[in-house]
Amino acid sequence: MIRIRIIVLLVVGMTIITSCSKGESDQNSVKQDDGIEQNDENNDEIPVVLDPDSVTLIFPKNKTECNEGVFIDNSWSIVTFRWNPSNNTDYYELWYKHEGIGSWTKETTSDTEIDVQIHRGKQYQWKVISKNKQSSKNATSENWNFYNAGSGEENYAPFPATLINPKDGDVMNSKNNSNYYFQWDASDLDNDPLTFDLYLGTHPDSLNIVKNLQKTSELMVYHISFGVKHYWKIKTSDSKGNSSLSETWSFTRY
Questions:
Q1: Which residue windows does the record flag with biased composition (Acidic residues) (predicted)?
Q2: Whole-model pTM?
């Protein structure tokens, strides 16, 4: 009987010790689990930065004469540039230039319109760049052209041609075909007959006229060299001797 009691006591004692150990282990597990959950709760989420969208231009309208604005004198007027708001944008940069100046002028605003004093009787080009302070990327609108109305304007120069093809920065793999198809769009407020000069070359500051075109806005150019970046632009002229130059675009073919 004594031996049996001793064995029973030993078994019961071991069971109690095991249960206690297991309970402590479970408590530790719970604490560890709680710690992990707390750490998860304390983790900072990385904010997602959305890039800005481009705006849609409203006014002055593209390829029109602007007769609205505040008259200052025969040389100057104030015109309100307007555009639609864009998503994920903190502020906007209005860029504009007129036909007599090659460099752009910048105005900054957080609004979707801005008053600018500009020359009367001049052709202008403008665009808007959307900016987000948290993003390194910008979004640029279309380029629009207009005439700011002057006094006694008798004839207008044609608007700069809008380049269509090849697109700026275009890269084509076309070793079996050395021809390249050029296309653009042009207009004139006076509806004068227009002619076009296609400038082409491997350096943007030294382009050569490769073709003079009458009453057409497309051309197939032969034997474009491979592996070289080419630049192109269009000069548009009317029958009154007025002319305008488009932007310069580039393309490469491999």
A1: 35-44
A2: 0.72
66, 60 Cβ separation under 8 angstroms: yes
Domain residue ranges in the chain: 57-148, 162-253
Cβ of 64: how many Cβ atoms within 10 Å? 15
How far is the C-alpha of 91 from the C-alpha of 141, rounded, in Å? 14
Q: Tell me how far apart the alpha carbons of residues 14 and 49 are, in angstroms, rounded to a whole number.
A: 61
* DSSP summary character for residue 64: E
Can 57-148 and 162-253 be said to share one CATH topology? Answer: yes
Asked whether the beta carbons of 195 and 214 are under 8 A apart, the reply is yes
CA–CA gap between residue 88 and residue 91 (Å, rounded): 10
- The CATH number that domain 162-253 falls under is 2.60.40.10
What per-residue string of b and e applies to 121-147 under the rule 16 or more CB within 10 Å gives b? bbbbbbbbbbbbeebeeebebebbbbb
Instruction: Give tens-digit pLDDT for 152-187.
Output: 666 888 999 999 999 999 987 766 666 788 999 999
Residue 216: closest CA among 243, 184, 245: 184
**CATH classification (class only), 57-148:** mainly beta
